[in-house]
């Protein structure tokens, strides 16, 4: 079994030697504290619904909306005031059904399952289960008794693992299961499961998953199970697929330790990009084949320091023009398949081509804003993260500011937009309003693009192409004109020679 992976700072992408891992356990547990919290009002007021569950409550933050329904649903917009009373009650019944499936299969009671989960956690010498669970949340929740709190963790955890199992294995679904008998219900659940305020500690879900493997043998790892299930979302299909391959290739997914499911999703986007950085650093620093399989942490830290910590964002220097403006400077766009949607590269051209901006395709849908808003919220508010997702949102917002930009990127298949062009334009611009950014991932890329954009030669060349070469007939006319010009010059040259000989 491979070594554990650190989940704090930026999910170190490589296997860590066991003795080094043990020495960092206390540090890792400190980083895990208070990583599930309410989204601050300065972010929430931009779009409150992007941070509020619609159909299911996971964890303590919206627990009493589920329990008391209408009374706790007052904070929701008009038209959704009964959501806690109605929709939450539906998923509450589903939770009980999924829990009973596990208890019946294991032939134990809820109390016995709770005791086994607690014992499994205590065996890892990482502190008491109850204390460790509460340390993941930024609020004390003193109004919830320890018994009710732990029971909530167990019930919600069982719901999640059964939900992902049933998504991946249809034969496990009951014929009257409302989740899979209702169109789009699983999509609605995914929307809520990926909310920052709707998270469970990863170790709770992983402990329950490990215990239930006795009735569901020969299953994949928990991270693979979840990634496969949520890849149904268009915005996550590519990143989840590539990250699954990364986990299988690295053979370290069995013990992967994340903070929560949203942290896993962020890892699926960010870690492949860091893997690319690690590969580049590896080629520079490693000479022997044996060393290529075990990269020292300082190599990764050095790469991260170069790309993130020293990349101070300056709006005047690192702002790039819109897609339409870049196109007028003869900068092309190309959709590429990469391991991470963030792996954006600029390939410089020659005399007759300014350059090509290679961007992995991003599919934008109705749930995309919620996903990105919650990823940005955890980056901005939790000390253990850097600003990769926020940087990506800023970069894409620079490219897209009008319907013309969106149409151009959709034409090149860089953006897969299932919304209207107008809504697609607003998508990125609304994501990071009122968010200060001191560290920017795409500093070097923006500098390269801006240098080529400022060249007047390519602006003139692009204008020539658009006006003279926009159709086959214009190209033909231009070629005929060049031929006539050459023949005229040749004729004049002959006339001058004849006159000189006289």
Fold blueprint:
Blueprint: H1 18-23, H2 25-32, H3 41-44, H4 63-68, H5 87-106, H6 110-123, H7 129-135, H8 146-168, H9 178-181, H10 185-193, H11 202-212, H12 222-230, H13 237-250, H14 261-285, H15 297-309, H16 315-318, H17 323-328, E1 331-336, E2 345-348, E3 355-360, E4 362-364, H18 368-381, H19 388-399, H20 403-411, E5 415-417, H21 421-429, H22 443-453, H23 456-468, H24 472-501
Parallel strand pairs: 1-3, 4-5
Antiparallel strand pairs: 2-3
Helix pairs in contact: 5-8, 6-11, 8-11, 8-12, 12-13, 13-14, 14-15, 18-19, 19-21, 20-21
Question: Keyphrases for this structure?
Answer:
502 residues; mainly alpha; 3-stranded mixed sheet; two-stranded parallel ribbon
Quick overview of this protein structure:
This protein is mainly alpha-helical and 502 residues long. Helix content is 56%, strand content 4%. The protein contains 24 helices and five strands.
